[in-house]
Each structure stands twice: as C-alpha cells, then as structure tokens.
Design a protein that fits this description.
With about 500 residues, this protein is of the alpha/beta class. It contains 18 helices and 17 strands. It folds into 3 domains: about 260 residues, Rossmann fold (3-Layer(aba) Sandwich); about 160 residues, Isoleucyl-tRNA Synthetase, Domain 1 (Orthogonal Bundle), CATH 1.10.730; about 55 residues, no CATH class. Strand 11 and strand 12 form a beta hairpin. Helix 2 packs across helix 3, helix 4 crosses helix 9 and helix 12 crosses helix 15. About 40% of the residues are buried. It binds one RNA strand of 74 nucleotides through helix 1, helix 6, helix 9, strand 12 and helix 12.
RNA sequence: GGCGACGUGGCCGAGUGGCUAGGCAGAGGUCUGCAAAACCUCGUACAGCGGUUCGAAUCCGCUCGUCGCCUCCA
C-alpha cells in the first residue's frame, strides 16, 4: 500500500490513516496495572505499539504517545466489588500500596527497556490525576449520564444509551447484556443496571488508598483514568487508541461512553474520542491464552533468566522482540521453546549477515551487475514500506529482509575485483536496511556498548587469529583447533573464509 | 446462549483470486585440512463438503474443530 492503512476495531476495516492535525499524531495506549512483573503479553502490547510509534515517527509525524500506568482503581474480582489489585499485593508483600506500584513500575520500565521499547512521550499515573478524574466524573453527572449511590458514582448506561450507542466497539447491545445478567439484578446492588460501572467507589474502612471527593472518601473506577488522562494530554479528540484485545470489553467500551458523556461529543459520531482503535492479539501457550488469571503467564524476567518450568533455556530480550515481530500483531502468537529457539537462530543469522554487510566495500571494483541482485536490493525499500503501510505487517518486513541475506552473503564472499551491484544501489540499500532494522523494528545487535572495549577486543582477536593462522600454515592443526575450541567455549565462533578468519559472538 | 476470531507443509508463521512468502528443523550437494558459516537444490501445504469464477488458501454457504470476549487480565 502506498499510504499507511490501519485496521480499526471500531469499523472492523482497514482504513487509510489520516491524522486530525498533521503532522501531529496523538496516541493513547493502555499500559499495565502495576501489581506484578510484566509478562510476555505486556511485552507484545508494548512492542506492537512501539512499532506504531517508531513507524509514524519515521514517516515524519510528530507523535505524542501517552501510555498510562494504572496504580489504583483496578479491582481483583468482578466489576466494582472486592479488593484493589494493588492493595491485595501490598498486603501480601507487607508494603505500602504505593511501594508496590513503584516497584512494579520500575520493573516494567526495566523490562521494556531491555526489549528496546522506546519510552512514551508521557507516562501518566492514575494516582497523579485524581483531581482530573473527579472533574470528569462531575461533568458526566452534570450531563445526566451518571448517578450517586451510597457515596459511590456509577455510569448510567441506560441513560447514555438513549443518546448514544453503548456497545458499538465490541458489538454488543444493551438488551443482551440485560437479558444475560438478569439474575444479578436480584442482589442488593448499588447499581441501577448491571451494565453500569463505577466511576467512583466509596472506600470501605479497611481500604488504604483513598482520596476526598464530593461524594465520599474513596477511589476512582478503573475506566475513568484513561478518559481523564487522554483528555488532559491529547484533547477530547485524538488519533489512535491502543491496547490488548482483552480490553475491548468492557474497558474500551466504557471509555468511549465516558468520553462521549463527559465531552458531549455528537451522538453517533464515528470518531468519538479516538478515531482509530488498534488492538493487539493475545500470546497463547499450547493454544491457550497466556494470562495472569490463568496462571500460565511467564514473566519477562523468567524468559531472560530461563528460570521457569516451561522454559528450556534463557532467551535474550532481542530474541523475544524478534519472535513477537515475526507474527502480525492482530494474530494470536503461539509461544513454545521450539518457536523461540527458531527465532533466536534466525535473528543470529541476520545479525551475522549485517556484520558482513557493514564489511563490504564496493569501491575500486569493476561493476558487473547481476540483474537479480540489483533488483533484490533495489526494490527493498519499496517492499518493506508496502508491508508496513499494510497495518504494520512486520512479519512481511522480516521475510523481505531475509530475502536479501543471500545477496549480502554472496557479495561479501565474492572473490575477485568485480562487484555485482551498482555501488549507489548497494550503499542506499545498506543505509535503508539499517533504518529498517534499528529504527523501524527497534532491533539491535549486541556489540553496541563500549566502543573502546570493542576496539581492544578486536585487537586481541586479531592477535589470536594470527597465531592460529601461523599454526595452520605450519599444519599444526592441534594448536589451531585448540584456539578455536577455547574461543567457542567463551562464546566466540570462528569462520575461515578465503580472505581470512571472521569471528562472531555465539548467541 | 450473545458477540467475535481462527483452522496453512514436521514446528512457528505471512498471504492484496492467477506469480516460490519467510524462519526453524530435515535431506542432498558445492566449498573446506577438519569444523563452522555461506551458497545451491529438495516438501507441490492450505480442516471437510458444496457454490461463484476461465481460475480460490484467498469470495459465498454449510459442517466439523479450536480459541477469545461476555468477571480482573496486554
């Protein structure tokens, strides 16, 4: 596709991406509830929207990317009853709730950084925006779409549904929700309708996290934070709202309703608060969704260390990232050790090729263009751009990158003084390949830390390789092999080529 | 039950009606002191059954199966 198209969950179609106020783009993504270590699912969501952030930026847009940290209001059980997730964890760990939130915010950011996920422009916390949330709730009450009950405030879905359509994002209608939940009505709920959801909850005496409000001392409901914070930083209408598919209902549905109710959007406006709603799919394990509540979620730290019963080994953060990018973000992605090891191997192969790519010097050689090589490298940018424009199809981008590997390797290993590609084509391709690898996909090679150390190591390696070369010239195979074998044990692999010996870090 | 996805070669995983996706694993070969890497070749896959079409993995229908949301989850 020549222009960027994104799949919009709201319309269930791919649509051309047209920002409201180019070159500015506003994007809001639902971040984690910080009561535990981040797992593979968090990584997928963060990576998916990191790709959106990176690609839009690379296209010249000025993106304001807001990703929230939920540190209050998210309850353990069903809608609007029971404990706060953070408070429950705080009791378990015998900590202040804010200590829990801070701790897991830190680990989240550390893990995301390890995955080379760019920090968003703004990472607001729910507890830092209590006044904004109270203000939003007040507006909703004033507009007639919420009511106070026993010190708590609930969103009045039925009243909202008279002016707007509740359920259009997730394809539900209110009658169905009512019909299914009839039994719940029997209980002495504070709610008028089972589909109503809490905007503000009065705190029970044991509840630690509490703030003053016009209605009671309490805390905000889960959904309102996103409305308040997106409005504050992106305005009442912005471009992209993202999150995991499991947030489609009720979270995003509630958010659309709140936002319309609060900001008085035109009924039936397709655009609502955000024009494009993007949802990443789930990670599965043996076909089953990985989720905290299912107990089969693996922490990212466990991946990095290999300390989990389901893991056969440790996996580097870049392996995880590569694995995620090999699938499309709207498909489920099935995790397994073999799948991950395949990604590890594949990334390693690509890394080797990139090292060779950087070592190629086309200058001073006679040009003998080989048509298929020229075509392959020359059409690279066009092809990967096409793939990215088609709803961020990173899987196709990576496949196309692999298509160039054979050419790269052959150019590198070619003997003689001819070069099979026009130097301009080659140099432009090399530049673009790095842009795609590093800037678009956010992949990185290991040896990017400490230039001086790298130079020292290069010198040491040169020394060793010369020693080995001497040994080989003297047909002292035992010594030559000893050097190679010892290096392998230290994680360095050797490759003898016509022009000398290359070395690589073993993955 | 309601809403929605999906079923692709040993595994993972793209597929815009006609052109080899790609990766991993496997087989053979070239190269090589050995090894590794690289390069070349190899599987003729699309749940099943119908239909539309000159032509379908791709569109339509039915059947079977799997999964997600409907309660907290990225």
């Amino acid at each position: 596709m020549d222009t960027l198209h994104v799949y919009n969950s709201l319309t269930r179609r791919k649509e051309e991406f047209v920002p409201l106020h180019p070159p500015m783009v506003g994007m809001y993504v639902c971040g984690p509830t910080v009561y535990g270590n981040a797992h593979l699912g968090h990584a997928r969501s963060a990576i998916s929207f990191d790709i959106v952030f990176r690609y839009l930026s690379a296209q010249g847009y000025r993106v304001r990317y807001v990703r929230n940290i939920t540190d209050v209001g998210h309850l353990v059980n069903d809608g609007d009853e029971g404990d706060s997730k953070i408070e429950k964890q705080a009791r378990l760990e015998q900590l202040e709730p804010m200590e829990v939130a801070q701790h897991y915010t830190n680990t989240y950011i550390e893990d995301m950084t390890a995955l080379n996920i760019r920090r968003p422009s703004i990472e607001p916390r729910a507890t830092g925006h209590i006044p904004e949330q109270i203000e939003a709730i007040q507006k909703i009450i004033e507009n007639g779409y919420a009511y106070v009950s026993e010190g708590s405030v609930y969103f009045d879905v039925q009243s909202y549904n008279k002016d707007f359509t509740y359920g259009k994002l997730s394809g539900r209608d209110l009658d169905n929700i009512l019909a299914e939940s009839r039994e719940d009505l029997e209980g002495q709920s504070e709610k008028r309708h089972p589909a109503d959801f809490a905007l503000w909850k009065k705190a029970s005496p044991s509840h630690i996290m509490r703030w003053r409000s016009p209605w009671s001392e309490g805390f905000p409901g889960w959904h309102i934070e996103c409305t308040a914070m997106s409005t504050k930083y992106l305005g009442t209408k912005y471009d992209i709202h993202g999150g995991g598919m499991d947030l489609l209902f009720p979270h995003h549905e509630a958010e659309i309703a709140q936002s319309n109710a609060c900001n008085c959007h035109e009924p039936e406006s397709l655009h609502d608060e955000a024009r494009y709603w993007l949802h990443n799919n789930m990670i599965t394990y043996e076909g089953q969704k990985m989720g905290k509540s299912l107990g089969n979620a693996i922490d990212l730290r466990q991946f990095f260390t290999g300390h989990h019963r389901l893991l056969e080994k440790a996996y580097a953060p870049m392996t995880i990232r590569f694995f995620v990018l090999q699938g499309h973000y709207r498909s489920t992605l099935d995790f397994s050790n073999t799948a991950l090891m395949a990604s590890e191997k594949a990334l390693s192969r690509m890394a080797d090729a990139i090292k060779r790519l950087d070592g190629i010097d086309p200058h001073g050689k006679a040009i003998a263009v080989q048509a298929d090589f020229e075509e392959n490298l020359g059409s690279f940018v066009k092809d990967v751009t096409f793939a990215m424009n088609d709803d961020f199809n990173t899987a196709r981008v990576i496949a196309r990158m692999f298509d160039t590997l054979s050419v790269i390797n052959q150019l590198y290993k070619a003997e003689g003084n001819t070069f099979a590609v026009q130097p301009d084509t080659f140099l432009e391709f090399r530049r673009q390949f790095h842009v795609v690898f590093s800037d678009w996909l956010g992949l990185e090679l290991d040896a990017e830390d400490g230039e001086s150390k790298q130079e020292t190591l290069d010198g040491v390696m040169k020394l060793l390789l010369n020693l080995r070369l001497d040994a080989r010239k003297n047909k002292n195979w035992a010594q030559a092999d000893q050097i190679r074998d010892q290096l392998v044990k230290m994680g360095i692999k050797l490759e003898d080529t016509a022009s000398g010996t290359d070395w690589y870090w073993e993955q």
